[in-house]
Amino acid sequence: MDDENSHLTAGAAALLAESDERRIRAIRSRRWVLYPRAKQALDRLSLLLDHPRGTRMPSVAVYGDSGMGKTMIMKRFRDDHPPSFNSVTGTLRTPVLAMEMTSRPGERRFYAELLTLLGAPQRPRADIAQMEQAALRIMEAIGVQVLVIDEVHNILAGSYREQRIVLNTLRFLSNRLQISLVCFGVNDAREAIGGDVQLARRFEQFTLTRWSANEQFETLVASILRNTPLRRPSVLTPKSLRRILQITEGVTASIFHMINSLAVEAIENGHEQFTDEAVEKWHPEFDVEAAFA
Question: In angstroms, rounded to a whole number, what is the distance separating the alpha carbons of residues 247 and 242?
Fold first, then answer.
């Protein structure tokens, strides 16, 4: 990389050769930006794969408000540990299996979702015991070590009895297969997991709190800027950083949205950099959904 593009990562610098339209499209697309807090979460999750197998496997629960980057971290962890096929033995290994908790949880719906994810054919009249045994057999055969469950707070949508059954199911899977669990959810998920004391004790909690005016936030913004393909380097003053925090309320998805919007403006008006004036004038056109949740 030449000195002229030293303010960018190699991937972002490569995009400078593209048309403005392609660069804008790249900026608007969902992209992974590694920042210290996300790396800390990923490093902790990766340790689960190295833990010796046992009957009480350690697990991790990642909590945070909507838009704090939970799903992006989950997908990155899954993608960092993809399935592998051994052509010699003809076996498939899937160390990390990721699923989403169904909107109205129940034992049958949970196993149906799990079997669908595993690509297993399902008999319409199969009972829960048969579905359970099929899931266990396949998960053991493909070597699942970590079961990741996104939107775990959906457990609370069920009745008290349904909540207990689903939590018992998670504990059973962890015990029988000697696998770790990783659960992602909003802060209400603490209540969901807390419904089973034995299960809750196995979880280390990792909370994605909203950003505040500190060095970590400055590092996040710097990481995003380095991954944003603008031709000129940007230096934001503390006043601009405070305004970004004020407008976004410290929500990761909103921070990405604001910076991406400013980047598109910078390309369209030819400035090719962020300016304090642009930050001061910027206002959201609508309430940002948690696109990077």
Answer: 9
- What are the phi and psi torsion angles at 107 (to 5°)? -60, -45
d(CA 79, CA 218) in angstroms, rounded, equals 27
Number of Cβ within a 10 Å radius of residue 10: 8
- Chain-centroid distance of CA 32 in Å reads 10
Q: What is the mean pLDDT of residues 27-46?
A: 91
Say if residue 241's pLDDT is above 80: yes
The residue with tokens 């972002």 is 12
Distance CA 120, CA 292 (A): 30
- Dihedral angle computed from the Cα positions of residues 73, 75, 77 and 80, in that order, rounded to the nearest 10 degrees: -130
Q: Is the pLDDT of residue 82 over 50?
A: yes
The CATH 3.40.50.300 portion of the chain extends over: 51-208
Integer Cα distance of 205 and 63 in angstroms: 7
pTM: 0.88
Name which of 202, 167, 210, 158 is nearest 186 in CA terms: 210
Going by C-alpha positions, the residue among 13, 15, 17 that lies closest to residue 3 is 13
Q: Residue 285: enclosing H or E segment and its boundaries? A: none
CA distances from 86 to 90, 140, 237 (A): 5, 16, 53
User: What's the mean per-residue pLDDT of the chain?
Assistant: 91
Distance CA 112, CA 102 (A): 10
Q: CB–CB of 226/7 below 8 Å?
A: yes
Could you please state the CATH topology (level 3) that the domain comprising 51-208 is classified under.
Rossmann fold (3.40.50)
Backbone angles phi, psi at 164, to 5 degrees: -60, -40
Give the C-alpha distances (Å, rounded to integers) separating 235 from 150, 277, 281: 36, 12, 17
Give the H or E element holding residue 111: helix 107-117
Q: For 224-234, how does the pLDDT look when each residue is reduced to its tens digit (9 = 90+)?
A: 999 999 999 99
Mean pLDDT in residue range 75-100: 91
Q: What is the mean pLDDT of residues 172-194?
A: 92
